Amino acid sequence: MQTNPLTPRTSIPPPPARQPATGERTPSEGPEGGPRHPTRAALVWMATVAVLVLLGLLIVFILQNQEQVHVQYFGLVGSVPLGIALSIAAVIGGLLVAVTGTIRIAQLRTAGTRLRHRSPTRPPKIRHQLFRHGHPAR
After folding, report:
1. In this model, does residue 89 exceed pLDDT 60?
2. Sign of the torsion angle spanned by Cα atoms 129, 134, 135, 138
3. How far apart are CA 79 and CA 96, in angstroms?
4. Can you list the alpha helix ranges (DSSP code H) found in the chain?
5. Full-model pTM
6. Distance between CA 61 and CA 82 in Å, rounded?
């Protein structure tokens, strides 16, 4: 059957010229009418601004705490400004938290890998004990 390419198809309705007023989308909605999700570039930009604000607050903190304090740590003795000493302590505390978290994540990944690679033909011991005691299989 031959169709004329200049003849419009009647089975496909033309798109509406304008959305109805009840279905108007606000600028905060996406193309499907749902909420918009920020792009990666927007997230990076927001993170950059947040870090810059925090660094500005840190600089103000250090400048306002310039009194010299006497510090002793495992035989090291020195005199540093209070703001710097507290900033160093905060950084070292953050590093300790990061190291501890990294170790825990590595433990969880190792445990997950072991569970995924466990042989499917050998059921765990708990199931064997249930079958031995006469419990019905599930």
Report:
1. yes
2. positive
3. 24
4. 40-64, 82-116, 125-132
5. 0.49
6. 10
